[in-house]
Amino acid sequence: MNTKKRAVRLISVFFIGIACIFIILLIAVFVLWHNEISSVTSIKKISDANPEHGDGAVYTMKVSGDYYFDEFLKENGAKNDTELISFITGKITKGIIPMKIKNSEIACSAFTASTSDGKRIFGRNYDFKKTNTMIVHTNPGGGRHASVSTVDLQFVSVNIDTGITGLKDKILCLAAPYAPLDGVNDAGVSCGIFMSYQGENTVPTDVNTDKPDLTSTTMLRMVLDYADNVDEAVEMIQKYDLHDSAKTSYHYMIADATGKSAILEWVNGTDSTDNDASKRKLNIIYNDPARDGNYQIITNYILSDGYYKDVPEKEAHGVDRLKMLEAALAPKGGVLVDEEEGMKTLAIVGRRGMNNEDSNSLTIHSVVYNLTDKTAIWVDNEHFGEKEHTFILDLENTKASK
Predict the structure, then answer these.
(1) Residue 163 is assigned to a structural domain of this protein
(2) CATH at 161
(3) Sign of CA dihedral 328, 330, 334, 336
(4) Per the UniProt record, which residue ranges are transmembrane (predicted)?
(5) CA 104, 107, 108 angle in degrees (round to 5)?
């Protein structure tokens, strides 16, 4: 009898020990990854894929915590996607689960303007092939700005055809704060990235000096997290070397709630000579409503003076959409009735109805950011005017259109 009691006692102690170890492991996991767990559980699908229309799915995520971007900058950023992946994997999954991040060739069009009641807006089309997207809300604290941005999920290696199918894909989405395509922060600063097709064979910018380094989308993240206005954003960017990702080149637009905007282009001579990416210099094309006009436009067309002097204008990427937006905005002096008219303006250059000069034949998302109110209207896959595909964004939430 005593032997049986001892055996029962030993078995009980064994299972209690196992239970204690399990609880300790759960506590350790929570301590290490409580922010990541909260972010993953916040992911929601808000629009289904539709292969017949070439639509990918749309998701939202509220990012918990500061996603280590302060540390990223303190460690001098990254020169390429490999370095960026190494940093993200080490910080977010502690090296246990590999993560990926990449960029691809994208098209796109954007403009700044004002509404009839004086509010400033930033409208943007993201043009690509079928892909899945995510609207990402961040509020890192520590003196950094809250923001809402849009991410192409193929950039974090979520499968284009299947979308998010399980926990592994959701973990990949934890890298999304490092890959914004456009967004607005709580200071009313908005920004976007646009392919620029520079050089004879599209050479990515790769400046190498003694400055710290940023890749294409991490530069946008820095602007969203830290910039109070356009001038401050430009001042920050000038302190870094830019390294474009995905073997392609980009230029950028930044705007703020005062109406000031700037297009940032790293160039070296003309398009036919711009083949040494290490020698490119930053050229800034400002637009101040008080001095220059009420709007600014960007597509894939380089706007630096004389850049295409050796290239027939019709061969320059994005010149058709640039002229179409100019024709829509100029007669109105860049003053639109409201954000809805801004969305109708973006519909003019939606890619499904155009004779495309490249393979980016779909407009994946269209968004009009209100820089005054820090809100946005967001439409997926050119479903303009369709309530089930129209979403209202603020810094904290993504809501269906009423």
Answers:
(1) yes
(2) 3.60.60.10
(3) negative
(4) 7-33
(5) 125
Per-residue pLDDT of the chain in tens (402 residues, 90 and over written 9) = 567 666 666 666 666 667 666 666 555 555 556 898 899 999 999 999 999 999 999 999 999 999 999 999 999 999 988 899 889 888 887 666 666 666 566 679 999 999 999 999 999 999 988 999 999 999 999 999 999 999 999 988 899 999 999 998 999 999 999 999 999 999 999 999 999 999 988 999 999 999 999 999 999 999 999 999 999 999 999 999 999 987 789 999 999 999 999 999 999 999 989 999 999 999 999 999 999 999 999 999 999 999 998 877 767 889 999 999 999 999 999 999 999 999 999 999 998 866 555 556 899 999 999 999 999 999 999 999 999 999 999 999 999 986
Residue 18 in any domain: the answer is no
What total of structural domains would you count in the chain? 1
In a domain, 268, yes or no: yes
Range of the structural domain that residue 331 is part of: 42-400
User: Global pTM?
Assistant: 0.90
